Each structure stands twice: as structure tokens, then as C-alpha cells.
Amino acid sequence: MKQEKKRQQHSYRYLIDEHGDWFCEGIPVEDRDVLRVLSRSIHQTGQGSYVIRCEGEEHGVQVMDAPLFVHCIHVALDSAEQLLHVQIELTDGRRETLAAETLETVNKNSLYCLATPRRLKAKFGKTAYYELTRHLQVTDDEETFYLIIQGKRFDIAEKVETSPV
Predict the structure, then answer these.
(1) SS3 label, residue 138
(2) Is the pTM of this model over 0.70?
(3) Number of domains composing the chain
(4) Domain final residue pick, 63, 79, 98
(5) How confident is the model at residue 117 (pLDDT cuts 50, 70, 90)?
(6) Alpha carbon 7 to chain centroid distance?
(7) For residue range 30-57, what is the model confidence (pLDDT) as tens digits?
(8) Same domain, yes or no, for 148 and 73?
(9) Do 98 and 17 have their domain in common?
């Protein structure tokens, strides 16, 4: 017997602003448990847009900057104060190893990486940004910033985006 697909009753519209704050139908989402569920349910479509997929339903998400935000970092150093390991902590509480090869700045202003198994764009908040910059190094010509983790160099890519007029 073929099961009927559950018909979605209502489609909510979500927004994540440039600071990582969530809104549903224009109302701020402030409940930490709800935010955690929403953040962990976000997916990127093949067209590059974002949706929440939860309990068989799908809801659109307008993302003003990045769908995820890095709240802070946790580092392990060796006896010579060199980085052994960098872990990021997302605002929803998840922790994972920094994918250092995905680090990039946009317009020499904001720092991003890819996070979660879905490889979603994550923006470093101020605290995480400044924590990480303590470990940055720069080439002699001052053109490239990089991290060295376990003796391996990871250059931070620079991306320039223009605002649509």
C-alpha cells in the first residue's frame, strides 16, 4: 500500500540577519531550544537558497550573510605555543574541527569557513574572529595571512564581493 505524503499545512518564512539573529514571519526567535533545532535543520538547495527541513516540512530561509555563525574557538597548543588543533563552536552549541582549508575573508572585513557535514558557510563573530587572529601569521610581503596547525600552513583566501545596485 502506497503511503500518502503528508500535506504541509503552512509555509513559514524565516530570516537570518547579518548578525545571525533569527526571525519567523518578522518576529524574533529567542527561545534557545527552538534556535538550536532551526540551525541544525537548515539545508542549502541546489540553487543556492536555504530551507529548513523538519518533520517532513520545508520552509524557506532568507539568509542576509551566512546561515551559521561561529561563537568562539577552542585551541590546543603544544609546549612551544604552536597550534595543534582548532575547534569552532557554533552559536547553536555544536563544536567541530575547523576546516582551515576553507577559511576566507570577504572584502578584507569578515572571516568565514565551511562548517557541519553539509559544508554550510559560517561567519566568525567578533569573539571568535579576535580569538583566531591571535594565531594568524602573515607573509613577508604582508599580502597573505595564514594559520599553521600541526605544522601545516593554511592560507586564508581573499574574496571581493560587490554589492548589487
Answers:
(1) strand
(2) yes
(3) 2
(4) 63
(5) very high
(6) 31
(7) 999 999 999 999 999 999 999 999 888 9
(8) yes
(9) no
